[in-house]
Amino acid sequence: MDQLVVSDLVVEFARAGHRVPVVRGVSFTLERGRRVAVVGESGSGKSVTALAVTRLLPPTASIRSGSISLDGSDLLGLPERSMEDIRGGRVAMVFQDALTALDPLFTIEQQIQAVLDRHAPRASRQARHDECLELMRAVGISDPERRLRAYPHELSGGMRQRALIATALAGDPEVLIADEPTTALDVTVQAQIVDLLRRLSDERGMAVILITHDLGVVADFADRVVVMYAGRIVEDAPADELFESPAHPYSAALLDSLPSLDGPRMRRLPSIGGAPPDPAALPAGCSFAPRCARATGECDSEPVLVTIGARRVACHHAGTA
Questions:
Q1: Which of 146, 179, 138 shows the shortest CA–CA distance to 162?
Q2: 70, 4 in Cβ contact below 8 A?
Q3: Which of 45, 132, 146, 181 is a plausible cystine mate for 231, CB 3.0–4.6 Å?
Q4: Cα separation of 211 and 198, whole Å?
Q5: With contact defined as beta carbons under 8 Å apart, do 129 and 53 qualify?
Q6: What does residue 218 show for φ and ψ, rounded to 5 degrees?
Q7: What pTM does this model have?
Q8: In a 3-state reduction of DSSP, which class is residue 51?
């Protein structure tokens, strides 16, 4: 059974008196205990989609249409008080910058206990402390007793990210959304954090949405990969199929830009020419066409997202990437 279902989601931002769509008709499902990666360049709409799921959009943004349901319950129709029970409880979020997401005035233990008190109250102070220790151990933090007493600035970047994940786990979520959780970390720590998320997903039967601009971090993590461009899904495929044979030229270009251990030791990595379009001034037809080497006159009309086997792709030349 699908646990999280996002259907035809449209999110708009207010800009200079106009409503600008930044997420355009996004639909995807997340099955219980599975992992999906949502990838794309900055401005593709992936983080806004994640914020819409948790109803944490900024004041300038609004959901114009579409639906989001969790186990059949309409999240967009819930009153805010009910949504507060779900947010941080059944659905938790890990943000990009742990130093910003964690409160500098409170210790790590105080911040974990705040989530426990809200979503999983314990009978005694000792029980809450023991739970904090267990969560710190679960995310691989050594000497958890000492680290619980630390303030966020006293921890390294990787350790802060682990502490933030521990805080998210305190509500025992069914779905964890990790928005660019490795961006500010070095390559070695990035791999450790992604491995940690995969292990926690397996151990807890927890579904995970990983938001990232880097396809390289999801190869061994995701069951499915959703590729977004200019607010739309352009490809949604099983991870192994997408890495083996991307169907959309944008997916192929993202993969080509990854460094590889195969081939010549020294080579210039290809890049995607140009830049993503301004959501307020989208080109007619396919939004990627101005940057696409395979664009033809057919691309003057916007492609629809069609199902081809186990994947969905929005491209008039699907399968030729």
A1: 138
A2: yes
A3: 45
A4: 14
A5: no
A6: -110, -5
A7: 0.92
A8: helix
Lowest mean pLDDT among 222-236, 243-257, 264-278: 264-278
Q: Report d(CA 236, CA 242) in Å as an integer.
A: 8
- Output the 3-class SS for 101-170: HCCCCCCHHHHHHHHHHHHCCCCCHHHHHHHHHHHHHHCCCCCHHHHHCCCHHHCCHHHHHHHHHHHHHC
Three-state SS string over 239-294 comes to HHHHHHCCCCHHHHHHHHCCCCCCCCCCCCCCCCCCCCCCHHHCCCCCCCHHHCCC
Q: Domains of the chain (ranges plus CATH)?
A: 1-32+40-90+207-259+275-309 (3.40.50.300)
Contact assessment for residue 48 and residue 22, using Cβ atoms and an 8 Å cutoff = yes
Q: Which amino acid is at 55?
A: R
How far apart (Å, rounded) are the C-alpha atoms in residues 133 and 197?
Answer: 18
- Residues 6 or more apart whose CB falls under 8 angstroms from that of 231 comprise 21, 22, 23, 24, 26, 44, 45, 279
**Phi–psi pair at 292, nearest 5 degrees:** -100, 125
**What residue type is 180 in one-letter code?**
E
22-61 tens-digit pLDDT: 999 999 999 999 999 999 999 999 999 999 999 999 999 9
